[in-house]
Amino acid sequence: MTRSDTRRDTIAPQPPELASPWRTEARASLQAEARAFARETVLPIADELDPQKAQMPPSLIAAMAAKGWFGITIPQEHGGLGLGVFEYCLVSEELARSWLSVGSILARGQGLGTQTLDPERRAALMRRSAKGEWIGSISLSEPNAGSDLAGVATKAVREGDTWVLTGRKRWAGFAKGAHFIEVLARTREPKPGESRSAGLEPFLVVKQPGTFPEGMKGRVIDKIGYHGFETFELDLEGVRVPESDRLTGLYGDQGADADSGGFAAVQRGLNIARVHTAARAVGVARAAVEDCQLYLQEREQFGHPIGDFQALRFALADMAAEVTQARAFWQQVAHLLDQGEPAESESAMVKLTCTEMAVRVTNQAMQLHGGNGYTTERRVERYWRDARLTTIFEGTSEIQRRIISDRMLPRP
Hints:
alpha+beta; 11 helices; 3 domains; globular; Butyryl-Coa Dehydrogenase, subunit A, domain 1; Butyryl-CoA Dehydrogenase, subunit A, domain 3; four-stranded antiparallel beta sheet; Butyryl-CoA Dehydrogenase, subunit A, domain 2; single chain; three-stranded mixed beta sheet
């Protein structure tokens, strides 16, 4: 089969614009801008680079920065757009529809790596973050601490005004290309009666993009999908961090403070991250639906487009209904977070629901494409690979079920 037969350069008709109880003209305009950028700029790059497992070009990141998207949730007084979780997820869904990693890179801004102890430095870093000049990586997990973040073993030992970090971290996305890496480390062992998370604090490891700092080595993890930026396992052998770079929170959490505890701030940030993941999963699943919409009209068997067969039409209808339902759910939870609600159970529910939906829908999309779906000639295999990851990162589906059930029933 030749490339011209695959119709990879064809894009499905525009889906309906934002329609929900939370629709405003400003949000509809933002959505339209992001959708056009995703289709015209991101999709051709993804089609070229994803099969090569290549990284997104700096020019693409610069183009997103020019639109202010790395500062969607940063207050206007710090150079950001001053918008909420809703708008952040709205843009991310559109970008993820073309390439999941592009919808993800926005999370490396949004005030990440700015929660330092010095308010003046914090404000300066916020301005850089809003401009896309302070893009980071988050290093929480370890080989033996993923779902159980309280099991983090990386040590942070204080020597005067410096902390010395030693340990091994895993799943640090964009670690080499970033301006900094946020590392979760243990400053002390829990005291009797304390939570296992006691003593865990995030630290800011500042570095030059394209390098690792002294005392750190990185090994690229070969992933089956989620291409666009590299993901690393990191060895920390005496990485030195000044006390001024001990953080009070992650994910640019504006509600974090030095007295709340670093681990508690991590948990708050994870609620936003889970809704963000839900929106990205919806974007990937929507891509699969739109590609199937075209393919069912393009592919002919028995003298008819296969879209004439009721079984396939109904499968597409079910897929579209699931995507629409999932989108409404992430919008609802994003609205709750913007209203200041903790929404911990809801964040777990929406992450669980939307990501599992994305796996089902992209799997069905491959089935509707038949043999052509099991080739790299069609985008649908990319959607399937990327959707599978969404049920794992930011907390597996099993962890989301545990969070939900623990708030419904007494803990064992």
